[in-house]
Amino acid sequence: MKKYIAVISIAIILCSCSSINYNHITGFYVGSSRDSIRHSTISLNYDSTFIYTFQSSGSWMPNDTDTITGHWHIRGNYLILEMGQSNTYSLSENNEKQKCTTLHLYDKMSKQPICFAEIFQINKAQRKIYYSDIEGFVEIEGAFDHILCAFLQIDSKIIDNRYLYHDICVYLDTKPHSYLTIKRIYRINYRKKRLVHHNNKSHINYFQRVDNHS
């Protein structure tokens, strides 16, 4: 009997700790950086979503920031942020009646349209080049063997002719040298109310919680 009581007690304690951890982790954090110019924040919401702001790549202006959203969860003593769009591309509908293929190009992490990306319509006999407009939109007329979508020399995706005359959303990486990745892991320091980078090569030493909390 005592054995069962002990097991039940441990289970209750573990559940309580999990609840306490979850409640104590939500809030607003500001990054403590090796580089005083770089500015980053994390807002962890109760619905397991987050808002991550960081200084734009290559910018020296503190207020020039990008924003990424996603979902977070706790695994043991670690916080895991799942960022960005995991799909390479997605399909919506067939435009066969219009005899055109339409592309909508987006940044994989920010979901913002990519303008001036290069799109190559490739056939055996010829190659035609297009550029996405300010909304990341391109309309390609006629058939193709495949389409190559490229952003500078950073990322590219190939769409074959199975998707001829479809409306396609394409997601490309635009910042390969950003210190952000699709998944970020932080060690949780409850005593100091900090999120410490699991990878110590990051520009940010840790994130300090700054909002009011118990």
Task: Looking at this protein, list some descriptive labels.
elongated; 214 residues; 2 domains; Lipocalin; 47% strand; mainly beta
User: How many H/I helices?
Assistant: 1
**Major sheet summary line:** 8 strands, antiparallel, barrel
Output the helix-strand order. HEEEEEEEEEEEEEEEE
DSSP summary, beta strand count = 16
CATH-assigned homologous superfamily of the largest domain? NlpE, N-terminal domain
Tell me what you see in this structure.
This protein has two domains: 2-84 and 182-209, NlpE, N-terminal domain (Lipocalin, Beta Barrel), CATH 2.40.128.300; 89-172, Carboxypeptidase-like, regulatory domain (Immunoglobulin-like, Sandwich). It has one helix and 16 strands. Mean pLDDT is 77; it is low at 12-20 and 57-62. The strands form three sheets. Strands 1-2-3-4-5-14-15-16 form an eight-stranded antiparallel barrel. A four-stranded mixed sheet has the order 6-13-7-10, with no helix packed on it. A four-stranded antiparallel sheet has the order 9-8-11-12, with no helix packed on it. The chain has one helix at 2-25, and strands at 27-33, 40-44, 49-55, 65-75, 78-83, 89-94, 100-107, 118-122, 127-131, 137-141, 146-151, 155-160, 166-172, 183-189, 194-197, 204-209. The longest helix is centred in the N-terminal third of the chain and has 24 residues, at 2-25. It is mainly beta and 214 residues long.
